[in-house]
Design brief:
Blueprint lengths: L2 H7 L13 H7 L7 H18 L2 H31 L76 E2 L10 H5 L3 H4 L9 H11 L15 E5 L7 E4 L2 E10 L4 E5 L10
Antiparallel strand pairs: 1-2, 2-4, 3-4, 4-5
The structure holds zinc ion.
Length: 269
């Protein structure tokens, strides 16, 4: 007979007189096993130890997921640039002037321009957060670019961008002449009297530089688009000091990892 029916059919048994009303006590009184205090404490201790073991791995796992997402963005850009180059192979500078110029003909989504590891959500452009100052302003195609929103042919529709584009149309500000061992006449493909980043990089790709004894670089290890937002979990010591580990798209279109100063660790493929 069910328990509730016993209570209903035997009036001298008062429900209020049951010694305990909590479920655990009821279980013990039913003769079924329950948890003792010691067993509960052991379970809590095991759960706490497991959490202590797992917790430190969570940030790294999240960062790895964001890196995979960033690599996916970079692959989309690599396909877009290759298509662009195919359409403009007769131009003196066959690469797009800016990543923003790929939108909307070759890249249809603006969210591809922002890396999920970029805490500024593209506001600070290619700045390697927390390691270096914004030393890449000339390749920083965001609405906060010091040169202006549409400088050197940028597409102002792209407001924010996490990625540094090595082949931009901005004048190259670094000491490229002595580094490459080349003159303006050597690199100025379009003959406008200015060495743009794209012209300097095309020359470096095909003719090398003082670092690699003027040997040509391979297309598969020459960075074209770079993300500096993943330095936190991979750092590398080189003769020049701390190196940020970055995600890159090569000129040939493959995604690879390299230090910030990639030339120092360059190995011919
Ligand atoms: Zn990234």
């Amino acid at each position: 007979m069910p328990r509730e029916d016993i209570f209903r059919k035997t009036p001298h048994v008062q429900r209020a007189n049951r010694p305990f009303s909590c479920p655990a006590a009821a279980k013990v009184s039913d003769g079924r096993p329950g948890f003792t205090l010691v067993e509960l404490l052991v379970v809590i201790a095991i759960v706490a130890i497991l959490m202590l073991l797992v917790m430190p791995m969570i940030p790294r796992a999240l960062e790895q997921a964001r890196q995979a997402d960033c690599a996916s963005n970079l692959r989309s850009f690599s396909v877009a640039v290759l298509l662009y180059r195919n359409d403009h192979d007769s131009d003196p500078i066959p690469t797009p002037a800016w990543l923003s110029n790929l939108y909307p003909s070759y890249v249809s989504d603006t969210f591809l321009y922002v890396c999920r590891s970029d805490r500024t959500r593209g506001r600070d452009g290619s700045r390697p957060n927390g390691v270096f100052a914004d030393e890449f302003a000339e390749t920083d195609d965001t609405e906060f670019n010091p040169a202006g929103p549409n400088a050197y042919g940028r597409n102002p529709e792209i407001k924010r961008c996490s990625y540094m584009y090595e082949f931009s149309a901005a004048p190259c500000s670094w000491n490229w002449s002595s580094y490459l061992g080349a003159t303006l006449a050597d690199v100025d493909r379009d003959g406008d009297g200015v060495a743009s980043w794209a012209e300097v990089k095309h020359h470096q790709l095909r003719n090398g530089d003082s670092w690699n004894k003027n040997q040509p670089y391979g297309d598969t290890m020459f960075p074209m688009i770079r993300c500096f937002n993943h330095h936190a979990f991979k750092k590398l010591q080189t003769p020049s000091g701390l190196q940020a580990w970055t995600l890159n798209v090569a000129y040939s279109g493959n995604v690879f990892e390299a230090p910030l100063y990639w030339e120092y660790n360059y190995a011919a493929p």
